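Pasting as-is:
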Amino acid sequence: MSVLLTGVLVGPPLQPGRDQAARAAQQELSKQIYQQAQPSLLERVLEWLQEQFDQLAHRVASAVPGGWWGLVVIVLLFVLVVVLVRWRVGGLARTLAVRPVVFGGTARSAAQHRAAADRAAAEGRWDEAVLERFRAVVRQLEERAVIDERAGRTADEAALDGGRLLPECAAALRTGASLFDDVAYGSVPAGPEGDRALRDLDESVRAARPALASR
């Protein structure tokens, strides 16, 4: 009897069923040591993105003449084009975003701005001559009550307001305002031609009679 009991106790264990084996494996894998060994969610996402990028890069490289070297050349050319475009249109973008005001600092009369423009032109300082001449034109419009005196007025606003009552000078005023903005930003250097155009505008505005249309 004792031999039989001993055989039962020390005999080989019973084989677990399928469900028992699955539960045992799940319990074993749920232990912290296995959880720490698995990659995190961020790591899995980054790995997936890397795989997608590699596949896309290989497809692009296979479609581009020259393979990877051709792709590198295209990317470099694209970067160069972007830099050139930003360099060329940067001044224009700034001009569209914020226009400089005509007057700043100490207030001067039209005659004073005109005298400053004459001095600058005589010394070949064309940028200053153009800016001062346009300021003289705008101040002249204010002194003649063609436009009201208003701080912070831009060159475009002055040309638009002045052109309403001086329609024969409207086109020249717009051209003068555009030149003022270009020179004020430093994107277009002025020259004797610009100075001459602003002199003609100054004379035209001084000689023009306001139209009877209401502002």
